Amino acid sequence: MIAPDFISIVVPVYNEAHALKPFLARLAEAAARFPLGHEIIFVNDGSVDGTEAQLLELRKEDQALGIVSLSRNFGKEAAIVAGLTAARGRAAIIMDVDLQDPPELLPEMIAKWQEGADVVIALRSDRSSDSFSKRASASLFYALFARLSEVKLPPGSGDFRLMDRKVIEAFLKLDERARFNKGLFAWLGFRQAFVSHVRPRAARPGSRWRPLKLIRYGFEGIFAFSSLPIRVWSVIGGALALGSLAYGIAMIAKTLVLGVDVPGYASLMVAVLFLGGLNLFTLGLIGEYIGQVLTETKHRPIFIVRESLDAVPAPPAGAKP
Ligand code: UDP
Ligand code: MG
Questions:
Q1: Which of 3, 82, 127, 231 could form a disulfide with 90 if both were Cys (CB 3.0 to 4.6 A apart)?
Q2: What is the pLDDT of residue 2?
Q3: What's the alpha-carbon Rg for the chain, to the nearest Å?
Q4: Which residue is closest in CA terms to ligand 1's atom 11?
Q5: Is 133 helix (H, G, I), strand (E, B) or coil?
Q6: Mean pLDDT score of the chain
């Protein structure tokens, strides 16, 4: 497929009726400096707040808007896949609608891509706009992920990035359901370039991620990219078995030499509880992996489109229509 000379901007939106207009206004300023045309693809991820009506309204004024409405809320990861599937540009930029991914960075990202990078990642050099709990849990997660997984996530990278057409095609070939896009992006490789920015506060209050959903997502990411948590138990189990063997031999020898003695309730309890806890824990871990295997084998689509409207790409600023 030969993509025409424009870039696709992919924006997942979930209950963002009020964020759309300010976002488009800021984006238009940046787009005036694009050296090539553009289309903007909004993926309406099952919003229930009038986002869709607002999108349809805005599209009347700007045909460069494409709308992909999913049949329900599939989550940001699936929405990104839906958006990249619909994107037809020579490259695509994924960004949030709440202006935490500043549109002003786009011309610089496009320039780096035109200089030869396949992926341009916008790093946030500072997360002070996020709440303390979010920063703490994020740094814990990234430290854990770095230890457990072979895939290296560039520190400070999120979904905000530009991808060349060949990267998009490669990304869309990865058809797993337990999606952790940041890991998948890193797994793909390609020639990377970086731009950095200080992540601003969201233009509207709050996050569209409920804390539990975010925690679930974090665990899924780890289980999808590391089998260490499930494999490490054979080593721990082996060490425990060897230890108990040695302990058993020592006990038998002691009983033979010194005779039977009754005390030992505490150590017995400790051993039973510890091993029981360990058993349950590992069983839970195995369950997590089997859960992912089950989800994958069902081969359900990653997202379902209810309705979509194609974009008519806008020419570069200054070009004659
Ligand atoms: N989003 C989405 N589906 C969801 C949750 C979020 O499409 O289920 C979109 C949301 O509309 C926004 C982007 O993903 O454009 C990032 O969401 P948010 O700003 O709430 O995330 P945070 O900044 O807290 O990471
Ligand atoms: Mg945000």
A1: 3
A2: 47
A3: 25
A4: 13
A5: helix
A6: 86
